[in-house]
Amino acid sequence: MGRNRFHGKPSNGDVVFAVVAGFLFLSLPLVCFGIRSFPVNGEILAQVGTDLISFTEAPEYRNGVECSNKTIHIAMTLDSEYLRGSIAAIHSVLRHASCPENVFFHIIAAEFDRASPRVLTRIVRNTFPSLNFKVYIFREDTVINLISSSIRVALENPLNYARNYLGEILDPNVERVIYLDSDVVLVDDINKLWSITLQNNRVIGAPEYCHANFTKYFTETFWSDPLMSRVFASKNPCYFNTGVMVMDMVKWRAGNYRRRIENWMELQRKKRIYDLGSLPPFLLVFAGNIEPIHHRWNQHGLGGDNVKGSCRSLHSGPVSLLHWSGKGKPWVRLDERRPCPLDYLWQPYDLHQHKNQYQPLD
């Protein structure tokens, strides 16, 4: 959510141009039937102003002849701060989906926001008239008393913790869901991620990063306590990013994992055992026991770290999903005309009308 200005000067312009050009080619729409702007509703304008309602209607993406009737469930959060990112993320999923009409979005809206859930619903519907989706209201009092201070204020937003409560928020007939952060774009078919099998009775699947220094995610208070640190004694825990997860909601509900996460959050309020928002409780419950998914499904960290938000490069290997986790967000840096090179990969999915020309300053 930070809005600092950053310079992004690639060391090798030709290489950066080739990478960006390749991704722009891959992002061409599969099927579309025209683009138009939607009329401004007086209620929407009164609540949020023109900056939030200025979206172009997305192309209409249709299923191919070989699509089945299976539904792919995706859960995302939505508020005015990240609205532009959420719209781009939805657009990217539809653009690259082999069966876009099979995708159903479960959108969790902030209870207290300058744009009400009703207004946000209208914006999504106007931008994606044929989208299959449902909007849920996340009650902030569910978690507000469990949130502790973090290294970045943005990480204290109650909506960041909505994924802890998917078992209660989503309809009981939703047995499996892909959770996506609002600062991602897909450049591959979501059906491939949906088709991943969670083996050995695992509850969630996500890319693991076992080379990362796992100890840094918890304080000395945690590691020096033999009872607390014993939670990892029989495991080989690795860091994983909670912004992209395949979740078995049947096992999640049966195992009462919401309560397991809350237990650690309650302990955090008494003893400072971590500093990084909503991620550490997930690590405490799941690290060492998740289904490892290929790293291509979460090229994370493109927003830099949580302090400076400086420019990052892609990890080596293939890419199916780009994730601007960290302080820097592509729509902010592009609007400020100080983008990082990889921010241009986000641009083709941006449906905001009042975007700048996206030209970096000299």
TrEMBL record:
Its EC number is 2.4.1.-. InterPro entries: Glyco_trans_8 (IPR002495), Glycosyltrans_8_dom-fam (IPR050748), Nucleotide-diphossugar_trans (IPR029044). Its main location: membrane. It holds the Pfam family Glyco_transf_8. GO terms for cellular component: Golgi apparatus. One of its GO terms (molecular function) is glycosyltransferase activity. The keyword Membrane applies. Pathway: Glycan metabolism; pectin biosynthesis. It is an enzyme of class 2 (transferase). It is found in: Endomembrane system. It comes from the Eukaryota. SUPFAM superfamilies: Nucleotide-diphospho-sugar transferases. The keyword Phosphoprotein does not apply. Coiled coil: none annotated. Belongs to the glycosyltransferase 8 family. This is Hexosyltransferase. It comes from Lactuca virosa. The lineage of its organism: Eukaryota, Viridiplantae, Streptophyta, Embryophyta, Tracheophyta.
